[in-house]
Amino acid sequence: MTDMAKLTLGGAEIDLPVRKGSVGPDVIDIRKLYGQTGAFTYDPGFTSTASCESGLTYIDGDQGILLHRGYPIDQLAEKSSFMEVCYLLLNGELPKKDELDKFTYTITRHTMLHEQLATFYRGFRRDAHPMAVMCGVVGALSAFYHDSTDITDPHQRMVASHRLIAKMPTIAAMAYKYSVGQPFLYPDNSLSYSGNFLRMTFGVPAEPYQVDPVVEAAMDKIFILHADHEQNASTSTVRLAGSSGANPFACIAAGIACLWGPAHGGANEAALNMLREIGRPEKIPEYIARAKDKNDPFRLMGFGHRVYKNYDPRAKVMQKTANEVLEKLGVTDPIFDVARELEQIALKDDYFVEKKLYPNVDFYSGVILSAIGFPTSMFTALFALARTVGWVAQWNEMISDPEQKIGRPRQLYTGPSQRDYVPLDQR
Ligand code: CMC
């Protein structure tokens, strides 16, 4: 029997069905609320609202747990590959060997971009932010790949999904190449997903490029850690854009735009810039004091999360990977010392303890990306590249859901009530 929640409003009592997930909090189904009572619910920022039903990713923010299709993120990061995780997110199960080979082959065959897309880049200033370029170029894909924009056809949806996953490294690497004035490199399909991306970013046509296996493995892990994250702001943006029937390339461009903000994916860039600004451990107390000061808009970037009220499990893996990469590459970066010290101080500080503010995925990712050689402006572009699989998997799930409707929130209106127009000469 369905559990019911009771709501008393204006003297009347209404029963609302309670739905149960496989794990996690129950949800109160309020879809009939407006019809029955004429009232809306009010929840700006969706702090207590489940916007959809999903079988992809689960987060327990109090315990610091993140599962993709049931598998813990640390196990996936340690034991699987980004291609496996992509398959898992899109198809629901880990691939068998032949399924993984076929999937990898398919993705590899979609890595090239339509040649004309290269001319788009030349329309941007050289100092354009890579995220500005990514928004534009990804949105423009819909003008080139008409045979995968019919969202009612599951095959076309999957082709579009494969194209997006495959082309993002090419698009991001070209954004980097354009910014440094070097020639674009075509993909090399004999390399792994991460190896190919590294070569397109750091290789030059004049010399052969050797992929460093340490960097390749770290890159793959970073991609896994960013692959999906439940109904975050950019994923919700993709779903909302997709709910109107917009084509997948346009929806992902919308997701990229949302991800860019410093409260979301832009935090990795902001976190590294902050660590550089702090510069040395002695200056940490000054920045901690600023973060705690209500009159100062400064926040510790890479700290805090809407859902995690415990250590972000991705940050744990990221910190370990940062240790490994810096050690194996022989890089000594004082920024890493500042990060570790800042974390230790913040974790003991009453303000951060009381508000349950812990390092998130963006706190250590910048340290690794910087050691690999990426400029800070590329950090969020890498996040977008990796999150594309989550976006397309969530988008596919939404389109396949028979209960799916156009997303159309309502509001609490506080503007003027109806009044008559006043002619210009009488105002
Ligand atoms: N530094 C200092 N104080 C903070 C911080 C921080 N990083 N984060 C939250 N707080 C305080 C905030 O001032 C508020 O205090 P009070 O209750 O006294 O007003 C309280 O903690 C709750 O913060 P909130 O802004 O209401 O919480 P939220 O759930 O709306 O925001 C957040 C979550 C991630 C936007 C926020 O923690 C933040 O701005 N963090 C820094 C940016 C960041 O690292 N973002 C990356 C998130 S993880 C990757 C991703 O998903 O993209």
UniProtKB/TrEMBL annotation:
Pathway: Carbohydrate metabolism; tricarboxylic acid cycle; isocitrate from oxaloacetate: step 1/2. The chain crosses the membrane at residues 363-386. It comes from Sphingomonas changnyeongensis. Keywords: Acyltransferase, Membrane, Transferase, Transmembrane, Transmembrane helix, Tricarboxylic acid cycle. Belongs to the citrate synthase family. InterPro entries: Citrate_synth-like_lrg_a-sub (IPR016142), Citrate_synth-like_sm_a-sub (IPR016143), Citrate_synthase (IPR002020), Citrate_synthase_AS (IPR019810), Citrate_synthase_bac-typ (IPR024176), Citrate_synthase_sf (IPR036969), Citrate_synthase_typ-I (IPR010953). This is Citrate synthase. The active site is at H305, D362. The keyword Chloroplast does not apply. It comes from the Bacteria. GO terms for biological process: tricarboxylic acid cycle. It catalyses: oxaloacetate + acetyl-CoA + H2O = citrate + CoA + H(+). Pfam families: Citrate_synt (PF00285). One of its GO terms (cellular component) is cytoplasm. GO terms for molecular function: citrate synthase activity.
